[in-house]
## 1
Amino acid sequence: MHISEGVLTNGILIAGWAGTLTGISIGLKKTNPDKIVKTALVSSAFFLASLVNIKIGVSSTHLSLIAPTGLLLGYSTFPAVFTALLLQSLLFHFGGIFVLGANTFTMGFSALMTYIIFGKLIFNSNNRKTVAVISFFAGSLAVIFAAFLTGLILYFSDKNFINAVKILFLAHVPVALIEGLVTSFLILWLKKVSPEFLL
Amino acid sequence: MKMILKLNIFNLVMILTLALTWPNFNDGFIKGIVIAVKLNIFYIFFAKFHDEIFDALMNLRLPDKFRILMILTFRGIFILKDRIDTALTSLKLRAPNLHGIMKFKTFAYVTGSIILQSLRRSENISRAVKCRGGFNGFNQTRHSKFRKNDLILYTYIFVVLLLGYA
């Protein structure tokens, strides 16, 4: 879901960086120093999952683990996503330096929203079926929301991107279903094996 | 500095070779520049990351949490990559014909177990590091100062990045 360099207008780039820097500063303040190791490991997993990339027009799709990142890290999501995307843009040229703010915002905000909306429901429920269903929706909707935000950013940059936005959105529907399944199984497994690992 | 000089002498030859052998001189030249930029970034991150970059991040006055997060994420990538490779090899040998939902279920379990195992080991190491003065104290004994060479290196990195993104 990385937006390529040179696609967005200056206004959108600045807005993306403003949102990302706000997220990072709040995230760093709320990050417990003892949990930095966990944040770094989830960030590494996010980095590795995002490497399986398929190009779609001016954007691309991949298995992103957005929802698990949000559910495992909570408010520390933004610094983790930013670090992973920064390393990706420097080492593999996915996205870019200038567009890093917008890319971090789309994924970080979606992950954070997943945590805020679905976090308590998942952590407080002891029924496996309920957890599975909620986690599935959390995983799927996180990807759909990230694709929606990416599309919105592209559309506001240039109205001619509308067709690319439609393709991008449609291409993310199967990814969302897969991501939902993976999130569901992952959260169920973590709740069973190591519930303290979840927030 | 010497290694960077040697690397870029090679880059110069590579850029010239690409520019002169490519059907269009400009296309070949740009391809060469892009490869040279990537080689430089790879060198800076993979060969120099542990000491110089750590110090540079410290000198840039970045928040400690962010600096430590960046270093640990970078190391975590290699740890997870090794474990994922091992897990996927054993998965291929034990269950070569996974299809449908079972495939995603297995992928989720493998991902979860790798993160969890790595986290437990990393937390143990992190506790040991804290006993020895923590991440902040780790580099203070050889804290570097801003020198002429650093100015040359920063200017060089800035020019390389500018060329790469131009």
Note: Chain B has a mean pLDDT of 79.
## 2
Amino acid sequence: MPIALKISKLCKIYDNKLSALKSIDLQVSQGDFFALLGSNGAGKTTAIGIICGLLNKTSGRIEVLGFDQDLQTNQVKKLIGLMPQEFNFNPFEPIEEILLNQAGYYGISRSKSKPNAEILLKKMQLWSKRFDMAKSLSGGMKRRLMLARALIHQPKILILDEPTAGVDVEIRHSMWAYLQTLNQQGMTIILTTHYLEEAESLCRNIAILNEGKVVEQTSMNKLLAKISQQTLILESLEVLPKQINVDFGIKILDENSFEITLESGLNLNLVMEKLSAQGVNISYVRSSKNRLETLFLNLTGKN
Amino acid sequence: MWIAYKTIVIKEILRFSRIWVQTIFPPIITTSLYLLIFGGLMGERIGRMQEVDYLHFIIPGIILMTVIQNAYANTVASFFLAKFNHSIEELLVSPVSHWVILLGYISGGVARGFAVGLGVFAAVSFFVDFTINNIFITFTIFLLTAILFSLAGFINAVFAKSFDDISIVPTFILLPMIYLGGMFYSIDILPEFWQELSKFNPIYYMVDAFRLGFLGSSNSDLSTSILVLLLMIFILAVVAFYLLKRGINIKA
């Protein structure tokens, strides 16, 4: 698979001597849906800022679809669409103007960008508000506006920094579906998020940053396969018996629910069989912790 | 590049046009009051200056003052706000060259200077009967002055970290320089020492040359005024471009 983004030995030391990136190497394939995870201050936003030209790097090399960022800066910028974490538009501009201006900066005339702006604003359910000032939009609408703006010049690579923060569940799911469609159409998507289930359900590959270093870069499946145990919460509609005699550990949470830890050699079918034999009927099963969350905390040493 | 430049200029023009009550209208009212008080009421007592009556003498200076203040105010406010609300990032992520960004903001400043200057000119024409002696000189000096102070406003915006920082220079540096640059008087009336000192004030050359365009008479040579303007534009343009290219106070 051709490489969409290649980062080699990227370092960033801020003026206050904070070393935000410590020689990171990263590779994202074309057409990938890639998660870049890390806790606050891990260096995700710094890395994105450098890739997109918002921050100066200290050293290192970035290539985007074969173009060197230092030598072919404008070609690189044309290929990338960025949806940043913070709102970064003029709140006193009408929202359609924001899109048309952004297209103009990429050399696309108003007459050419207007139809695309209409499609994007309709997709983001903002068309009826196109003449409104951006400041009048809700938090979720502002995020959708930034997504539309990131797509107005039809980039090959879309970088999303916390795209669904503050967005309600319904809109979040519609955004996920839209992003998946874009990815299926061939767009490479790089995502940072604090919602780990978002990364787990959307992304095929993942890198985890911790304190300015890449501590893991692999496929989502391989990473999740590393989980040796998983904690589940089982709930019954009936009151649980006082004594449950099974050969695996259980932790009673209340009179209707308890927690079990699935380890290798123990699968859910077996658990259900044994519980049924004890007269325990399970109505709901849910994960105590998100699987990726557990791994993430282990890898970043914060568990 | 042309489309990007046009986009920035249109955005800038729309920005100050949307808030015309704050940007276009007040200078017209202020300058009309200047003319009424200094020219109309006090002018008759002052008499003639540089061989014209006082009212006609101060008109070019007052128009140029509004051009200077508004060209400066437009770039300093617009670029600082773009930094403040991070909308400058829209430009930084896109393939717009630094020259185009600078040229776009400067053109926005010139456009506002022109709009306000024209508005003041129209208001003045309503009260006073006068003609422009040389439209070419008048327009050239207007254009160069507007470019120069748009650049100065841009540099101020780059360094500004708070709203206070964008008002310090116009209030404590620009305004005294304008008032002491011969806007209300001819430097002929000053003692020799102050006459010589006034010649270190670049605004003196601009007001004097602009007055030449309007009235046909001036204290200094036109070519000196144009040279001073061009030299200062060159210096400020190089500084502004350097600041933008290095991303000083824009990119960490």
Note: Chain A has two domains: 3-225, 229-299.
